[in-house]
Each structure stands twice: as structure tokens, then as C-alpha cells.
Amino acid sequence: MSREIYDKILSTHHRRYFYDIEKTIDKFYNIFGDDFKKVLYLKGEEIERENIKSKFFFLERGKFAIKHDNYMGRDMICSFVFPGEFFNFSVFTDESTFKYEAAINSCVYLIDKDKILNYLKENAEFRVYIHSLIIKSMDLQMIRQGYTSSGNHRHSFVSFILEYFNGYSSYKDGQVEVELDVNYQEIAYLLNMTRETLSRIVNEFKDSGIIESGRRYLKILDLEKFCA
């Protein structure tokens, strides 16, 4: 049963579209050359406001938190970005209310919005290609917004781990091994929960014999119960 569940997650999860990162980078670099610029953001750094107003972003490596002011005027994380995804869609509507913070050290490619919009007008094939990636990226970030704001912390954690199945996991003898690029403090931050809350959830899974875990490692011993 666990193998069937694992294979179904691999074949149906939205993240299955985002693992040919090198191909995407090569395609954009061949079109836009040096205008497709790579920038390193260290953990905790935010993308500059002037870039949010004028650039479109592609995450090559790392994790980015998408932040927005809440009703108290304080920043809160409303979603996040995984590698292979585009973000800052508000640039196309001249809205700039979101902030983007590197949750871990991250590599981002920036492209001027006018350059990509002009090329979209000229090239129908590229327009179909980029629209597909944009829609899939937006879908994922909206799904994450749903589970980070739901208040169901256990579901949020499970959903987060499932995002790693395509590309970062392996199945052997009924168990799933997941390699993480974030620690549990960083996971808690991205999921809008305290480290203590996440520790309680992880310990409940451990005590029930469902998982084993390390700092950047998770082994799922019973996938059916983990997903339940």
C-alpha cells in the first residue's frame, strides 16, 4: 500500500513540473542573455523594493518566504517558493504589496518585466511555455497560502514534506527517505508556527512509530499513517 501511495504522490503532485531547472535557465539565458541575471541572497535578506517593482524572479536554489502585512501592520508569511518556480506575479499588475525574504541562502534569477512582456508579444511558442510555468507556479503558491493560514499545523507539516517527494526522496523496503535542505526551525518559520509547535508534531509522529528524523533528514516508516 505504501508503494502505491508513494507512486501516486510522485505522479500527481504539483511539484512534478519543476525539476528541469537547468533547462529553464538555459532557455531564458539563450533568449535574454546577460539580462537574465543571477543574484545570491543570504538567509534573511529581502529582495530590494526597486526590483520588486520592475523584475520577475526565478528561484534556482534555496527557499523564499512570501510576506505580506497583516491587519496589525506586521509582516506575516502567506506562502513560500521552492526551486524551479517563478514568483513576483504582482509585477504584471503594478502591485508591490508583497515582500520576498530568503528563508535560507538562495540563488535567484531576475529578468526585467518589460523585456519578458515584449518577448511574449513577439513569440507565441514562448508565450504558451511561460504561461504554463507561471500558472503552475501560482497554483502551488496559492495552495501553500491555504495550508499555512489554515491553523492545522499537522496538515501543514505533512504537506510541506510531500513537496520534497519529487526529486528529494527515495523508496526502499516500505519506507520513504526524504533529504531536506532546511532545518526544523526554518520549516516552522515558513509554516507560520513556533519551533515548539513543530517539535510537538514531529515528536508525536516519532512516538507513534511513523517517522524517524534528523536535522535535515526524515524517514517515513508508515506513509499511509503519515498522510492520514
| DSSP helix fraction | 40-55%
Count of β-strands: 11
**Sheet with most strands: strand arrangement:** 1-7-2-5
Taking all Cα atoms into account, the compactness measure Rg is 18 Å
Structural class: alpha+beta
- CATH architecture descriptor name of the largest domain: Sandwich
Tally of individual helices: 10
Give the CATH class of the largest domain: Mainly Beta
How is the quaternary structure best described?
A: single chain
Q: Please name the CATH topology of the largest domain.
A: Jelly Rolls
Major sheet summary line: 4 strands, antiparallel
User: What is the name of the CATH superfamily of the largest domain?
Assistant: Jelly Rolls
The coarse silhouette is globular
Which runs of at least 5 residues are low in confidence (pLDDT < 50)? none
Give the terminus-to-terminus CA distance.
13 Å
Mean of residue pLDDT? 90
Q: What proportion strand? A: 15-25%
Structure description:
This protein has helices at 2-12, 21-32, 49-54, 113-122, 124-148, 153-162, 165-168, 184-190, 195-207, 223-227; strands spanning 37-41, 55-61, 64-69, 75-81, 86-87, 99-102, 106-112, 169-172, 175-179, 211-214, 217-220. The mean pLDDT is 90. A hairpin with a 2-residue loop joins strand 10 and strand 11 (217-220). It folds into two domains: 2-10 and 151-227, Arc Repressor Mutant, subunit A, CATH 1.10.10; 18-148, Jelly Rolls. The strands form three sheets. A four-stranded antiparallel sheet has the order 1-7-2-5. Strands 8-9-11-10 form a four-stranded antiparallel sheet. Strands 4-3-6 form a three-stranded antiparallel sheet. The protein has 228 residues and is of the alpha+beta class. The longest helix is centred in the middle third of the chain and has 25 residues, at 124-148. The chain contains ten helices and eleven strands.
